[in-house]
Specification:
Layout lengths: L4 E3 L7 E5 L4 H13 L1 E7 L5 H12 L3 E5 L2 E7 L11 E2 L4 H12 L4 E5 L10 H9 L3 E4 H4 L1 E7 L3 E2 L2 E3 L5 H11 L2 E2 L1 E5 L7 H8 L4 E4 L2 E5 L8 E3 L4 H13 L4 E8 L6 H8 L3 E8 L6 E7 L7 E2 L11 H9 L3 E5 L12 H11 L3 E5 L2 E6 L6 E3 L5 H10 L7 E3 L12 H8 L3
The structure holds shikimate-3-phosphate (S3P) and phosphoenolpyruvate (PEP).
Length: 431
């Protein structure tokens, strides 16, 4: 297996300031919107993670001119009507966001395209997107009636739908909205629980009109996007690893700047507050399209909590690292309503429970989450990442509290969302 790491820290402390890399969800969307709009879109703070590079690669194959200089990206596009039919398969790598949002975008073009990804993507359900898109008239073919990649899309004229979301998923919502851009009529999406709203916010930045009232999105088809500048904030899902590290590693104090605190993403802040973490959140720019904050966290005495209901979509990607946090909290933490974890890069309920148990955690899986009794002193061990970046980073943060070596089989996958993760760990160590 590639990139095994043995992490061996003796009484580490984490102190200092980091600027977490750009938000993955917003970085993907900046490329997609810039490619749809005619003209020159510029992006700053772009995440150079592998998932976002997959999105760039797909749009280059559609003939869009994209240049990357450090974290600044320029997208020069003749607009989506002028994309070229790609001669090659579009490769979406490990990225569910790329695959699902592109399915929505490509359905309303005139192009024939084929998309595929890696072994993890090949197992992730696509009917949740393909089915509503088919109601709009989309022509999508794939294994098991469009459930799995490779997917072939024959673009066609779409019509708007009024769709009630069966699962809380920003990827499904966004795919429908983006298909709605090219559909006749008003696309309506009804959410029971609000999922991240980056698509809605960015559409407004690109000059489109979109209305959201009581969890219902209304979007009129046929609107043209206007090229613009997108400033990508830091990713709270990446900051999450250091929020937890700061709280559980003794004698630590970590400052994180430019962290995106969009309320549809910031559930982890509420959980940390409920658990009694010693934390300060100073909002930097409330008026920006995506608000940001400086967050300071220090070693804390934590108490258990229950994480359930409508907060789940607002912290879904943070649950692996919150499970580690709960092993250090006094009492029983219950995580429920989180069955979506089973269809991420890996089954994250099974992966989190298996791996934390190997370190001595008192944790059990349930059908829709997990139950964790704490606090437990964790010990060293040999972990698997399952090729899942968030499981790999959870293991690496756990290694900071074991005082014994922790071996992780594959840490290359961390570059999917946080290529500078170990640089940031090292920059904070023992200062
Ligand atoms: O829209 C997005 O950018 C994302 C939505 C979430 O997925 P779901 O829509 O499947 O919940 C999240 O887990 C993923 O990391 C990014
Ligand atoms: C689930 C994730 O991403 P995606 O669905 O884009 O693969 C994630 O980053 O945790």
């Amino acid at each position: 297996m590639s990139s095994t790491k043995i992490l061996d820290y003796t009484n580490p402390q984490l102190n200092g300031t980091i600027i977490v890399p750009g938000d993955k969800s917003i970085s993907h969307r900046s490329i997609m919107f810039g490619a749809i709009a005619k003209g020159k879109t510029t992006v700053s703070g772009f995440l150079l993670g592998e998932d976002c590079l997959s999105t760039i690669d797909c749009f280059r194959k559609l003939g869009v001119d994209i240049t990357v200089e450090g974290t600044n990206v320029t997208i020069q596009s003749d607009g989506m009507d002028n994309w070229q039919e790609p001669k090659e398969v579009l490769y979406t790598g490990n990225s569910g966001t790329t695959t699902r949002l592109m399915l929505g975008i490509l359905s309303g073009t005139k192009l024939h395209t084929v998309m595929t990804g890696d072994a993890s993507i090949a197992k992730r359900p696509m009917r949740r997107v393909a089915d509503p898109l088919r109601l709009m008239g989309a022509q999508i073919a794939g294994r098991e009636n469009g459930q799995y990649t490779p997917l072939a899309i024959q673009g066609t004229q779409l019509k708007a739908i009024d769709y009630t979301m069966p699962v809380a998923s920003a990827q499904v919502k966004s795919a429908i909205i983006l298909a709605g851009l090219r559909a006749e009529g008003t696309t309506i999406v009804r959410e029971k629980e609000v999922s991240r709203d980056h698509t809605e916010r960015m559409l407004r930045q690109f000059g489109a009109q979109i209305t959201v009232e009581d969890g219902v999105v209304y979007f009129e088809g046929g609107q043209q996007l206007k090229a613009t500048h997108v400033n990508v904030p830091g990713d709270i899902s990446s900051a999450a690893f250091f929020l937890v590290a700061g709280a559980i590693v003794p004698n630590s104090n970590i400052v994180m700047k430019n962290v995106g605190v969009n309320p549809t993403r910031a559930g982890i802040i509420e959980v940390l507050e409920n658990m009694g973490a010693s934390m300060k959140v100073e909002v930097e720019d409330e008026t920006a399209a995506e608000p940001t904050a400086t967050i300071t966290i220090e070693t804390s005495n934590l108490k258990a909590t229950t994480i359930e209901g409508d907060i789940i979509p607002r912290l879904i990607d943070e649950i692996p690292i919150l499970a580690l946090l709960a092993t250090q909290a006094e009492g029983t933490t219950i995580i429920r309503d989180a069955e979506e974890l089973k269809v991420k890069e890996t089954d994250r309920i099974t992966a989190v429970v298996n791996e934390l148990k190997k370190l001595g955690a008192n944790i059990e899986a349930t059908d829709d989450g997990m139950i964790i009794h704490g606090p437990t002193k964790l010990h060293g061990g040999k972990l698997q990442s399952y090729g899942d970046h968030r499981i790999g980073m959870m293991g690496a943060i756990a290694a900071l509290i074991t005082n014994e070596p922790v071996e992780i089989d594959d840490t290359d996958c961390i570059a999917v969302s946080y290529p500078t993760f170990f640089d940031h760990v090292n920059s904070l160590l023992n200062k």
